[in-house]
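## Example pair
The file below holds two records. Each record gives the amino-acid sequence first, followed by its structure token line.
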Amino acid sequence: MSSSRTCLAAAATASFSTEQIGESATEEFRLAFKDESGATISPWHDIPLKNEDGAYNMVVEIPRYTKAKMEVATKEESNPIAQDIKKGKLRDYHGPIFWNYGCFPQTWENPNDEHPELKVFGDDDPIDVVEIGGKAIDMGSVAPVKILGVIAMIDDGELDWKVLAISTDDPLAAEYNDIDDVPESVKSGVREWFRWYKTPDDKPLNGFGFDEKFLNVAETEKVIEETHEAWKALREGTTDAGKLWTGTN
């Protein structure tokens, strides 16, 4: 099975299309990304982190109210979106996620770098994004978002930042400019969902750094920039890529 559609990042200089390979909910399923010429590209390495208007590009992996644990396959050639597999089985959340979930391209949480305050290492993935707008966004979309804050989740001893953001075309984007503008119910909802979501698999609760608080936009920008610089080093080959597919190894 193969199907395609086009998504356009507002104010970006290029459009990107996706092509489905294999049936949904199978190990063979892949969502490949292509540029305007039809050439296969990597959503991790070839889509810019930011647009000319300052909005960040979010690669949507898991649409709102869905359960399949989809992710950019960082170890596969061209990094298509695929469903995560654990212990030989396709991975699903035990209940739907209530927001759109994905990652920022051209970022990387370096597993070789210890955070100076939290004393944990990165999780070896692009930085995660939780989009809190009012509509579901299709998997594979490149959605321009406005960042609002970030929380430092500690998952199995690894640092796994979660950026809170809102789509630039959401009505609330005009009202939300920093983390204090976001209702406490939304912030606590995101934090508690990620605290508990692995417990049905007999995993421990996840923890959070910085007194479990979301950091503001200024601090979020610093975190994203640090992961962007780590990604640059990964692409340049000045840090160990391990089994990751970088397009240069």
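Second record, same layout:
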Amino acid sequence: KRKKGILKKAHELATLCDVPIGLVIGSPYDSTPEVWPSREAMEKVLSQWKTLSAMDKSKKMMNQESFLRQRINKAIESCKKLRKENKELEMKEVMFDCLKGKTSPSRVDPSNLRDLGGVIEQHLKDLNRRIDILKKNDEPSSSSVPAVATTTTSYVMPMVEMPSSSSSVIFYDNIRERIENNLNKETRKDLDLNQKQW
């Protein structure tokens, strides 16, 4: 049953990847090993293999230990990436809760202030970039519209306020002030410890 599965996989690889594949399958019940797909094809594969350099032969060669080590490293990197994304999502949720008034910056854990400050700064950059894009898109459209004299009463389009940007700035200032206060406290503690030691 296992031999049939291996032969099926070899056939799929040879077809899908368009690579020469040869198998030599030994058995404790048969002294003559089975060769797939045929002896002639296997000899051709071996002759091609022998012409390769040592570096090309071992470039993609892998045993079980190196394969598992590679999978573990990939899993570790994936976990780091997911942990970073989760942290950013968590800080975004805290930021919007503060803007909505559900919580205040003073309740934020001091260990999360730097991450929160980075998220707010990135959010402000995205907002400013979007405002610049909207202004650039609005300028050519307004300049291309010809002035037409009409008798109808003119009206002014209401300006849409963007409280998110100003609130984010104020909120970011509060976070930055808290970070500076914490740094000052840590500096004072270090100075007090040094004075006590002297």
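Notes on the second record: Residues 1-61 form a domain with the SRF-like fold (CATH 3.40.1810). DSSP finds six helices and two strands in the chain.
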